[in-house]
Specification:
This protein is an alpha+beta fold. 21% of the residues lie in helices and 30% in strands.
Length: 346
């Protein structure tokens, strides 16, 4: 009897476990079915996305061929944001080139072209920029080279080489400046600058002779400046005031007459005597309509500032008046034996 009970209990236990396993199996099948359905939906979504991508890609290719905008973006990007074309390039010089049609706008480009921005459907595409080539150390700025001018050549012992301006009217007050290279420095009868008026004694109203130069100045450029304040003449040599030295006839006060450089006038505008001719080179002859101060003259200038509003006359290589302030023009005539290297403007 006990054996039968144990067998019945065992059969009942086995039956209960079989029912439980069947329920578990059914649950597992149900879960798998649901999972399969989810996977199926995922696959369907991926297929739809692929089809959509392929459709938009074809539309974009058509857009590029026709030069239009991306139809998927509504003809551009969202309102309120800067418009971005399909391709944006920048030349080396910085000029931007943008277009939505690569085929039509960027054909036949020659020379060097650098990509600045590349946009695809309004989105900036990133890329690694090329490694910059090493740059050489910057060269030092070039030093401005001095300007060398030409000088008039007056050989002396002749009457055929000179500069003349007739007539010339001096300002009421003035400063005369010039550079002289005397080869017969200290000679008493040699005149490098002569101004004559019809009413002055022996036509001499202002004379400058080579006698004013020390013999050590022979063959050297010397800075000469003379001021007239309406009453008194004052001569400066290399920035030093010497008053009215031997070898100078001060300005007589007659403001209109003839200027002659390289000769002395024994007649108005002429009467040249070869023995009185200056053996010298002369350069940068200028007149200003104000009296320079001693401190201004103390530092000899090798340059003439043509923008100086007080510049009244400045004679160039061919005797032309280079002043642009409306005075004159006081263009003269040069008859010299040639041109030599003048002073250097630094």
């Amino acid at each position: 009897m006990s054996v039968i009970y144990h067998v019945a209990a065992m059969v009942a236990f086995i039956a209960s476990r079989a029912h439980a396993s069947e329920a578990d199996f059914a649950t597992a099948v149900s879960h798998l079915t649901a999972s399969n359905a989810a996977h199926a939906r995922t696959i369907a979504d991926l297929m739809a996305a692929r089809e959509n991508f392929e459709a938009r890609l074809k539309a974009l290719e058509a857009t590029c061929s026709s030069g239009g905008s991306d139809p998927a973006s509504g003809g551009g990007v969202a309102s309120g944001t800067p418009h971005r074309d399909l391709l944006s390039l920048a030349s080396k010089g910085g000029t931007s080139i943008t277009s939505s049609s690569v085929e039509t706008s960027f054909a036949n480009i020659t020379g060097e072209l650098h990509v600045k921005d590349l946009y695809w459907r309004g989105q900036l595409l990133g890329f690694d920029p090329p490694t910059a080539a090493p740059t050489a150390a910057p060269s030092p700025a070039p030093t401005a080279s001095p300007t060398s001018r030409l000088a008039w050549v007056f050989p002396g012992n002749q009457a055929s080489n000179y500069f003349i301006r007739d007539p010339f009217t001096w300002p009421a007050i003035f400063t005369l400046q010039l550079w002289v290279k005397p080869f017969n420095a200290g000679k008493t009868g040699s005149h490098f600058f002569s101004y004559a008026s019809a009413s002055s004694t022996n036509y001499n109203c202002l004379l400058l002779r080579n006698q004013i130069f020390d013999v050590s100045s022979a063959g050297k450029w010397t800075y000469v400046a003379m001021t007239y304040d309406g009453l008194t003449s004052n001569l400066y040599i290399d920035g030093v005031s010497v008053g009215v030295p031997a070898g100078m006839t001060p300005f007589c006060g007659e403001h209109t007459g003839a200027i002659v450089i390289g000769q002395e006038q024994d007649a108005y505008g002429g009467g040249f005597d070869p023995s009185q001719a200056s053996n010298s080179h002369q350069d940068a002859v200028a007149v200003y309509n104000r009296v320079w101060s001693a401190s201004e003259i103390a530092v000899p200038t090798t340059c003439v500032d043509t923008s100086d509003p007080s510049l009244y006359a400045l004679w160039g290589d061919a005797g032309e008046d280079l002043n642009t302030n409306g005075w004159g023009p006081w263009t003269g005539t040069v008859v010299s034996s040639g041109m030599a290297e003048g002073i250097t403007c630094t």
